Amino acid sequence: MSDRPSPDEGLSPAELAAKYGLAVSGARPGLGEYVAQLWGRRHFILAFSQAKLTAQYSQAKLGQLWQVATPLLNALVYFLIFGLILNADRGMAREVYIPFLVTGVFVFTFTQSSVMAGVRAISGNLGLVRALHFPRASLPISFSLQQLQQLLFSMIVLFVVAVAFGSYPRLSWVLILPVLALQFLFNTGLAMIMARMGAKTPDLAQLMPFVMRTWMYASGVMFSIPVMLADHPRWIADVLQWNPAAIYMDLMRFALIDGYGSENLPPHVWAVAGGWAALVALGGFVYFWKAEERYGRG
Amino acid sequence: MAEARIPTVIADELHIVYRVNGAKTGKGSATAALSRILRRGSDDTARGVRKVHAVRGVSFTAYRGEAIGLIGSNGSGKSTLLRAVAGLLPAESGKVYTDGQPSLLGVNAALMNDLTGERNVILGGLAMGMSREQIKERYQGIVDFSGINEKGDFITLPMRTYSSGMAARLRFSIAAAKDHDVLMIDEALATGDRKFQKRSEARIRELRKEAGTVFLVSHNNKSIRDTCDRVLWLERGELRMDGPTEDVLKEYEKFTGK
């Protein structure tokens, strides 16, 4: 449109871009830059998780009361089946078994729902990914955060159950906080791994419920692993006890329940709990970041 | 023109391909899906993944201060091209270079119908990358602009209770609250009643003044003529014409038989 020949005449697009300092659109930022971007979006991550949590029950007449009622009913069903009908409480007194079971269900549900939400974090929000700019890890992190808030509601139920069966608040209850923090890190890492896999293969959303159920039954949610597997080779029980879901459940029970002492915990339990959290959180984050520029493809 | 023109967006031989699962011709049955899995490893077409080549080798350079219209029939790749320029859709081959972060005008995907209008304003603002302080500052402006509260206190009701017009007005008001370097508008102009349309057109003009470069997708030739000084015409994913608005629109109108 100008009459004189432009000084940029004859430059290739790449050279022209370099001359005026244009950057490739949608390129993946470096890891440090990415972390900084995520930190800049922390308000969005928190607001999005709270919005999802509120939206969940906004049409129900009882409204947010379901946040507490749902886990309570859940625990009741498991108690009915495993406590009353199947008598899975072998080797445990009733006042230990009930809080043992409820803790197991809630702690495992935390991981389970983080994984399930993670699978659909990208594939179920493709509209959002294709409309707005934000570091995509905001989505799986936000969904794990939603599950953490959901668990905090469940903890109210859990405290009531513990007290009702004779485990009163004591100093070891403080340990609940580091256990929750470690499990949250572990879950977030897992959610990021699942988010990347689910973005490429949405079929995982169909498959994961079965994987998660197998994992649940193998982690001793409703029975004590060493007692149940007493007449099997020792290593099977060891492997099951070292799996992260069982570790976090056992630590939570140890912190909360009076009659569940350290003799029920595998050796080096805190190191294992921290190791799993660090490994999965860091590994998951890097794994997710590596595909950052491709999530819009769906 | 005395000063040199500064490029803000450069597209270089851009190709965009969508992959659609399970859209092989005819039968979408379980056996078809199974054979698709078994044939894994061979190329995409054999596995029943249909490829849609939405943008084919588009190149152009946009300069600061330009308002560029994108025209073409439905499915010609206009929206896809915008998303690729914004860096939201990865390119199959070719590259897009941009100055700063181009953004699409629209926050629909971030809003939730079950939340109150109030919370959606905050959520939408955060999703667009505004800070909490910025949102607080502009909150009243957004609500007033949308006119939601003209007929009572609707902003504290869930968005699902809004009429479609009211919801569209709120969505536009949130989206238009942010300033952009490179602004892209995808047929978002005609929402709400006549009064609101006038207001939103004025707001778009304002945004255009603030933004370095504007892209506008529209099927309304009048609004293209009003806003744009350059037009890109896409047809079947290819750039058919690129030039001053009048020249391109004349050809386009001949093509569409108007």
From TrEMBL, chain B:
Pfam families on file: ABC_tran (PF00005)
Keyword tags: ATP-binding, Nucleotide-binding, Transport
Protein name: ABC transporter ATP-binding protein
Taxonomic classification: Bacteria, Bacillati, Actinomycetota, Actinomycetes, Kitasatosporales
Gene3D superfamilies: P-loop containing nucleotide triphosphate hydrolases (3.40.50.300)
Keyword ATP-binding: yes
Keyword ATP-binding: yes
One Gene Ontology MF term: ATP binding
Domain of life of the native organism: Bacteria
Residues of the ABC transporter domain: 40-256
Assigned protein family: Belongs to the ABC transporter superfamily.
